[in-house]
């Protein structure tokens, strides 16, 4: 019996193909069996690299958030940073079919130290004068608004109806600006 070498998979290959499958089939169509088929391996081969579908979704969500953080540039103050981050997150979420839904259900891809992770998340805003708790709370408000807006915006029939009444980008910016403006300084 001839044994064929098992193709080596990487996290990046798995996540990239999971995004391709997401674009093609949507969140409902993303399964480990379909992902394995697209990677030309048997489903059990994936479990050498990931624990389950939830971990794959978490890795995908992490990539969406990472793209948003990387698109957020230096800012003069924390409000400017939050506005940039909200717009970058909106772009990152809308760059993927079901991106907002994916991020709403995704969990951290691996066990992490929550305190260390919180410090990394808060860092851009603490550098601009907020304390850790304010930074986390303000970022959570912007993330929640952006996830909600993007989910609302992605609703096909309602979106088509509402597009006749409003400019989604302008309305998102108005909402984001209003939210950030209303966040307390201290």
Automatic annotation (TrEMBL):
Coiled coil: none annotated. It comes from the Bacteria. Residues 31-50 bind DNA. Residues 8-68 form the HTH tetR-type domain. One of its GO terms (biological process) is negative regulation of DNA-templated transcription. One of its GO terms (molecular function) is transcription cis-regulatory region binding. InterPro entries: DNA-bd_HTH_TetR-type_CS, Homeodomain-like_sf, HTH-type_TetR-like_transc_reg, HTH_TetR, Repressor_TetR_C, Tet_transcr_reg_TetR, Tet_transcr_reg_TetR-rel_C_sf. Keywords: DNA-binding, Repressor, Transcription, Transcription regulation. TetR is the repressor of the tetracycline resistance element; its N-terminal region forms a helix-turn-helix structure and binds DNA. Binding of tetracycline to TetR reduces the repressor affinity for the tetracycline resistance gene (tetA) promoter operator sites. This is TetR family transcriptional regulator.
């Amino acid at each position: 019996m001839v044994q064929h070498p098992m193709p080596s998979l990487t996290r990046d290959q798995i996540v990239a193909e999971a995004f391709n499958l997401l674009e093609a089939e949507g969140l409902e169509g993303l399964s480990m069996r379909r992902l394995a088929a697209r990677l030309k391996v048997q489903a059990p081969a994936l479990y050498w690299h990931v624990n389950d579908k939830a971990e794959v979704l978490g890795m995908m969500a992490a990539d969406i958030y990472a793209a948003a953080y990387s698109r957020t540039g230096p800012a003069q103050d924390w409000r400017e940073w939050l506005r940039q981050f909200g717009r970058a997150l909106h772009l990152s979420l809308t760059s993927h079919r079901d991106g907002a839904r994916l991020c709403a259900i995704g969990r951290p891809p691996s066990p992490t130290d929550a305190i260390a992770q919180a410090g990394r998340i808060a860092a851009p805003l603490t550098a601009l004068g907020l304390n850790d708790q304010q930074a986390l709370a303000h970022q959570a408000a912007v993330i929640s608004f952006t996830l909600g807006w993007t989910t609302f915006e992605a609703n096909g029939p309602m979106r088509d109806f509402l597009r006749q009444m409003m400019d989604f980008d302008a309305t998102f910016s108005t909402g984001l600006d209003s939210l950030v403006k209303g966040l307390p300084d201290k």
